[in-house]
Amino acid sequence: MNAFEMNLDRCAANYQPLSPIGYLERAATTFPDQLAVVHGSIRLSYRDFWKRCKQLAAALNHQGLGKGDTVSVMLSNTPPMLEAHYGVPMAKAVLHSINTRLDAASIAFQLDHAETKVLIVDREFADVMGKALALAKIKPVVIDYDDTEYPQDAPQPKGAKIGTLDYEAFVSAGDPDFIWLQPDDEWDALSLNYSSGTTGDPKGVVYHHRGAALMCFGNTLNTNMPRHPVYLWTLPMFHCNGWSFPWTIALQAGTHICLRWVRAKPIYEAIATYKVTHLCGAPVVMSILINAKDEERTRFDHTVIFNTAAAPPPETVLTRMSEAGFNVTHIYGLTETYGPSVVNEWHADWDHLSSPERASLKARQGVRSPVLDALSVRDPETMEVVPADGETLGEIMLRGNVVMKGYLKNPKATQEAFKGGWYHTGDLGVMHKDGYVQLKDRSKDIIISGGENISSVEVEEALYKHAAVSLCGVVAKPHEKWGEVPVAFVELKAGATVTEAELLSHVAELLAPFKRPKEIFFMEIPKTSTGKIQKFQLRAFIAQN
Known about the structure:
This is 3-methylmercaptopropionyl-CoA ligase. The chain is an alpha/beta fold.
């Protein structure tokens, strides 16, 4: 033992478990009067926000919840969802956020798998949740949230109450002086997220306090977030816990602008009214913004940082977003990595390149976030690193503290995901010589036609370059001669028209003959709630037709 290991032990004075919960406590004591939450006419200062979170924690604690107990919530981007991100772990319980677009059977599976003890549900989702509870084996305490700001002109009225408790009454009964319970260990479970279902096989992804605490710093750095940012909730908080932004905003004592539905008009109004600095979303949100009608737009005179993940934005979309006042940052991550753990770090000298060159660079996923230990592209069988030539395909792999604990009750899947000491994303990509990775496809989405690999992303990029295409997805179709051939599904922009022959002629200018779609289906593309294309449904359509 050397001198640096003698009498220099960990103790309460020099070591405490990392947790994002402390960020809210700091914001509330440092900036108590700073606006924390806006929801319609509701305004919460950091003093009030912190008080309500403590009350929620106290009420849950009074219900007997503690370490390892699951609190499930089915909520929109409203104040209770933000309060759950703090109040639940402050009682040492685990937060499980349910995708609000799921069917009853899927919800019932999650409730049973998570062993839910308490369920908080917005009345908007009461009908489907009532059916799910009838199917589920577990019988949790059900708490209704009755949103007083629910719009009168909502697409559907509120459902009937299905619980035995009311959320506001439940919180109000909690002790405002409750001393929140810190995690025993930063490795303790913080939240549970089920993978989005683009593959049709969701798993329960478990986050720990340490990863979320570090992710907040990564988000702050990656998005150039200043003190007191104003964040608009266009990203569902149930998706990867809103990429950890419910906790991140407290780090800089910012303001959460709640948004129940993603619609162009309220987004533009919020940006102009509250001087929104940041928002996040899939490419579908960008499409909503740039295709908004004139009467849906409200002018604003500042630049808004828009963080996007999933498919790389087409050049035309990036250009139109810039013209509309948005600076797009391309990021990459998965449910298993707390959201975005890779960022397209922009270089100032790239600003002087041509528009196509800039778009090509911005379409890359990027380099590791400062809070990710390592990013690599490797052969998944040999684990050898592929050449950094921008051409050789390999699997994108990640390693670090912002990788999940593992899959709940699924040791086999966890071991497979962590094989060789790396998290296997299942995404295929290339490493460029400057160290930037670029996603080419999911491993299951590569189309092998006549022995040649075809990237569905490459074919989709060609289709996106046609002005009429709003959304597209390319999958393989079995072929007697070639084994597989690409076919495309296309969703057109509102009011746009184009024929299959015209689109095929368009891609003929951009793709080698074997890469061109052999058929094009025009339809509304099936998507997850976060805008990701559900290719397993496209494959099912092919199998049935």
